[in-house]
Amino acid sequence: MKKSIPMLMGLLFTATPTFAQIGGIEDSVNDVSDTIRNIFPIILGVIFLIGFLFNAGHFFGENADLKKGITRVLVFVLIAGAVVGIFTYLITIVV
Question: Is the pLDDT of residue 23 over 60?
């Protein structure tokens, strides 16, 4: 019995700093999340611009194929929309 009291006190004192560190991790995760939320629309806009420029050759020029160009742009928009949907779902999860 005499050994269990100091052991219990030791465990209690080591567990207290662990609880204190959890708050710091949560704050840093929120900071990173806010940064990603601010940067993500810019990155998405650049990706859309690059995707359109790669597919613009199908709309103009000698070998213009309107059907192929529209199909590729639609596939690109669907993939980008799925990425945006997944990202939006992930940032709505409360940490």
Answer: no
